[in-house]
Amino acid sequence: MQALQVIEMYAGTRPDGETVVEKLRVTINDDDSCQLVTSPAFVQGLARGDTIKRDGDSFELVKRSGNLCIRVYAENAERFAEELTSGIEKLGGELDIESPRLLVYSIHVSCGFNAIEDMLNKYIGEHSGSVWRYGNVYSPEDGTTPLNWWNEILKPE
To answer: Rounded to an integer, what is the distance from CA 97 to the centroid of its chain?
Structure first.
């Protein structure tokens, strides 16, 4: 198994025009592709376990892991982080990043969008100043067009 490494990836531009770069933990494969160890907080379109090839400031997605990236933005995430994390873990998910204002989870799409969204809305909907978003479900270009990558994974055999 390859050792953990940290790479920097372009994550967007702030409203003031400054570039946002995120450091991602990865393992480097023999073909120089990278497998994400955790879901990113800011880079769009990726989740834990996805394999990418870097190309300068951008990346090419080589293979999806089947995980969803879920980001919870809050004024004070500590108020509900323990309960929400416990609920996500019961569905098979994991907490990847925790800070006072941000929680990032990875959970396999096979858990079902309804079960995942019900869990998130149970905790997040009750707290003003909190919102959750998928990091790899909608097109990074418009934020509303579903990517539909999960259709192949969830297709009955």
So the answer is: 10
